[in-house]
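Risk register update: the risk of archive-format incompatibility is retired. Evidence:
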Amino acid sequence: MGKHQEEQDVEKKIGQLQNRQKILLNRKRTEERRARTHRLIGRGAILEGVFPAIVAMEGEEVKAFLIALSRLPGARELAEKTPKNEGEK
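Archived output:
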């Protein structure tokens, strides 16, 4: 095999590996996005179950409600005491 052919083969292999890398990175991003979406939906369902009134609220109203809850006495300490993965499966 000539040097020119060998260079072409190497370039082809590099291109294939770069494409494979792109595919793997896209797959990783897709899996991360799906996991985040699943997590957000689950937490939203929990929030609506605990506070049914928020179903009728707009996004900014929900945010204000949660901020107000976070400012209640003991809220910060409770959040810090709660294990990070409690309730997650």
